[in-house]
Amino acid sequence: MKNILKSTLVLLSVLVAFTSCDNASSKSNSGALSSSAAEKVYVAPGEHDEFYAFISGGFSGQLSVYGLPSGRLFKVIPVFSQDAEKAYGYNEETKPMLNTSHGFVPWDDAHHPDISQTNGVVDGRWVFINGNNTPRIAKIDLSTFETTEIIEVPNSAGNHSSSFVTENSEYVVAGTRFSVPIPQKDMPIKDYKGNFKGSLSFISIDPEHGHMDIKFQLIMPGFDYDLSHPGRGKSHGWFFFTTYNTEEASTLMEVNASQNDKDFIAAVNWKKIEEYVNNGGGTMMPANYAHNVYDEATHSATSTMKKEVRIVNPLDVPGAVYFLPTPKSPHGCDVDPTGEYIVGNGKLSANLTVHSFTKMLNAIENNKVAGDAYGIPILNFEDVLAGVVEQPGLGPLHTEFDGKGNAYTTFFISSEVVKWKLGTWEVVDRQPCYYSVGHLMIPGGNSQKPFGKYVVAMNKITKDRYLPTGPEVTQSAQLYDISGEKMELLLDFPTVGEPHYAAGCPADLVKPRSKKLFKLEDNKHPYATLNEADAKVVRDGKTVHVYMTTIRSHFAPDNIEGIKVGDKVYFHITNLEQDYDVPHGVSMIGANTSELLIMPGQTETFLWEPKQIGVWPFYCTDFCSALHQEMQGYVRVSPANSNTPLKWSLGEDIE
Amino acid sequence: MKNILKSTLVLLSVLVAFTSCDNASSKSNSGALSSSAAEKVYVAPGEHDEFYAFISGGFSGQLSVYGLPSGRLFKVIPVFSQDAEKAYGYNEETKPMLNTSHGFVPWDDAHHPDISQTNGVVDGRWVFINGNNTPRIAKIDLSTFETTEIIEVPNSAGNHSSSFVTENSEYVVAGTRFSVPIPQKDMPIKDYKGNFKGSLSFISIDPEHGHMDIKFQLIMPGFDYDLSHPGRGKSHGWFFFTTYNTEEASTLMEVNASQNDKDFIAAVNWKKIEEYVNNGGGTMMPANYAHNVYDEATHSATSTMKKEVRIVNPLDVPGAVYFLPTPKSPHGCDVDPTGEYIVGNGKLSANLTVHSFTKMLNAIENNKVAGDAYGIPILNFEDVLAGVVEQPGLGPLHTEFDGKGNAYTTFFISSEVVKWKLGTWEVVDRQPCYYSVGHLMIPGGNSQKPFGKYVVAMNKITKDRYLPTGPEVTQSAQLYDISGEKMELLLDFPTVGEPHYAAGCPADLVKPRSKKLFKLEDNKHPYATLNEADAKVVRDGKTVHVYMTTIRSHFAPDNIEGIKVGDKVYFHITNLEQDYDVPHGVSMIGANTSELLIMPGQTETFLWEPKQIGVWPFYCTDFCSALHQEMQGYVRVSPANSNTPLKWSLGEDIE
Description:
GO molecular function, one term (chains A, B): nitrous-oxide reductase activity
Main location (chains A, B): other
Radius of gyration of chain A: 27 Å
Oligomer: homodimer
Helix content of chain A: under 10%
Strand content of chain A: 35-45%
CATH topology of the largest domain in chain A: Methylamine Dehydrogenase, Chain H
Number of domains of chain A: 2
Keywords (chains A, B): Copper, Metal-binding, Oxidoreductase, Signal
Protein name (chains A, B): Sec-dependent nitrous-oxide reductase
Low-confidence stretches of chain A: 1-34
Largest sheet of chain A: 10 strands, mixed
């Protein structure tokens, strides 16, 4: 056994070594670029980019907003990780966003953003994204570019085949990557096979507000569910998931989960299951999971712990789930704009397999079944096969579409993007990536209507592409022009976090939705101070509430006395500005938390627990005016047993 | 009194309103750009930028590394704020870096980076940067691009006139912005005048390792010390600090600290004080402050709490400190490459005042003193004046130099960069900024040898310059070509965090220093596992140490049993890779901490306290190879009273 392992490892090492070679030709390649590449990516001062790209930060846990074609970074939206700059996960308002059944979890691995759709077209309302590690799905509102909801996914682990949206945003779907005991229990790991399970969660989206609710979880065999995409057009109502580790191995997976020549794409008829559930089907199962909602009116989040979830056994809904054999350990599971073709990117396969939705329906109708896995029917490979792209590259991972009949597939091992034709399966172009490309993105690529002007390749290795920054080098993406017959590499652009996966759309879809400020009159924060005259300090035992305001260029109050060592002091700060782009920031010296960065019309709160007597300053941390440096104040902290009265002032001495 | 305040506020509001108007001409301006701007900023795929720019994140607390002329972001170096992506401030190794006398402080306001110098020229060894809020100075090592030391500055508040380096890196200097009681005590804020003090700290830099140590603190009158710069060349041995609030007001500072027509530049002869101190001068004063050092060999930081600091009363060292009258509330305090001119950027002044070092020495020699402030001699304005740049703009903040006899000053209120000539004081060019520029940077600008090809303007307002991202818009910088007689605006580039201040240098100065990996043989982490065969799990009561390794594409061990609810499990993970750019990442589902992101040859540790029984997976979070998805493992958690034996395995079942 050990020898077999070793020889397999040697083979794999060769593949690995291939990916990690420096590509010596990169510099000479650049010389061959047309001089117009510079003009094509240049967005002159004052001009705007044509597309938004929402690129996940991968292991940063966040979602980044870039412009295309410039590759410029406009915002890092905090989603699953604390952000000390923006106070996300530090201030009292957003701490509940990171609550889970395991307690406060300040990080996650953010993977696959997807934009909401209406009638199969991206609509620019919301972006959904999954946290892999502690399974969660988040929703970002594209009027504020803030995370407004996070729902934990119970009975899941390595929440990877997520978070893709159906064509009318009926559901955002989250599939587990690692199977686990469901429900969790203390059992030997070696008993994995047959006992560990996967789950595919269909989370409904409220059409008006986007609120998420787990409609049902489909409990599946203990495979790894890697990626997924919705059907569209003719295949709307279905969802497709790649699987690997159909071997159900539970140790040294790089070898043991790579034995089968074919794994599966799971085809799920969610419309059928929805009907079953609407008629009372499924079982309510106890499950603890957090549902965290940020309310724009109160500028505050609340976390609710849910207690049960509806589970569905696929065997109880005949005709709802099928397995399509797919070579080998497929990663991406991609559906073309017509909904007819399902591409299985078999990462250890020499060829690219494309399934036909029409053929799949025919096979189902004719009951042509090759066998079953834990009772779920397996169709014949040949019966569902649309075509094969022969030997297009090594290590296919992900395919996107340009809406003009072309597909673009990334190859990790041979480090390239390959363009091929749907239907004829012929390769028409290939371009190298620097280096080891993972996913790629064409704006609108996961919809009926892609905007096939650019493709972004998201790379896993960077090495020598930029000025070095020590052992940790930047992550990187590359932009190609795909408007012509041949692709043209335009730009290398570095990214914050891993550029794991992306969604994009035309800028005009989002720009009109983007808010410039929060109206003060709509501020329903329970501790808001809407007029400077109402600023005050209120003591309640050892708890003190400071109702403070900011406006250029002072705090009200700016001096406070009567705070004592051992107090819990809540600073509730309302930014009274009502102009675009005039935030104020604040923190206390020695505070064991982050600053606040308060947008116009907003209220935020930090907790300060003074430990030392003295007179301690605070100040505005966001350069707000010519007199920003003068925007400061002092808090006098007296001993716990002091009689210093609670007083505050602005512009006059405290007597 | 209130009416006077109000009328002053109206005047100030006019200034403020000026800065916040959208500049309607921005779009039409861009049309006038030469088409070559695109070519000038374009760095083709595979090519490298010419300069490094180290731009502080301001209220993000971090330091960002950009390339010029492309404006691309290569790394966000965590300095004063936690970073969940890189585990900074979360893993056991770096938590001590954020320790202070106030406890763990997970954020700061990072302001003024400065590159170390040798013989008055930037040498690319270290970058120093100040934390404003909880006064600290950090050192970043440019071989690893990591923060390797942070020293807290006692007797300080709003640590702003920092962290500038003398011309042989003898000292990094940190001046307090807000005066406070020294030592801190419980006293009325209204007693500020005469009782609150400022402090100017001279922190010695070990020439070999860069280790920092507070040599002495100069205790100064209770003004606000805003910015500072070292003398150089002829003025080497002196340090210059701008002051404001010489009124010693303590409330509504935007009005009360703007009354005097002139404030001061404080000129400090640190060589003289150094000699005094070396001869036993000054007084040791009790003071608690943290000194945190990261050791590259152990990959770990330690925090030491220091107990005393040497203070110096300037009156005890005659001839060491002088005040130079300077209009009005000066911000930047900038010294030209020859060391002769000291520019006071009077932010509320109509003109720009330039002092002469030679004249200052003459005035001192001839004892021409106009008066004193708390015993410190005030020189005559006319005696030290080199010249005045007449009405160059509104709201001057900061001046840099190109080494060719030109100076470049930012004007916040009139939103422009103005080029003028040293010696003749004539304005030769001006270019608008979008909008409200704060500081600016020419690579090497704070040295005897600037590299005057580009200037970067760092703006405070962005508004409509990029695609909108809700109420919070990106921060922004602008790049100008200054190689010709007239400046040319080339590029708007967004920044992460506030682009508060920057230092830059030619790329060739740093590239040869940049390490590609950490040698495994040099790894002295106490819990390192240098061979896969040595991987193990050790229980010590309720504490469990997991000695784990990573290499493409597995963990050793990958399965662990015998962990119990209530355990404290430390995962010490060593990345055995010895190739460039092959980090591995890891976290446990539900862990109440961040991931680890482990560079080749490095060991990092996270703490996991399992709360629920079950079988819980972990996985590699950094896409490392074609079989990255298979790089995973499981931990079985049993009840606290269970007898499940502690076992672990790789590739074989745990029996």
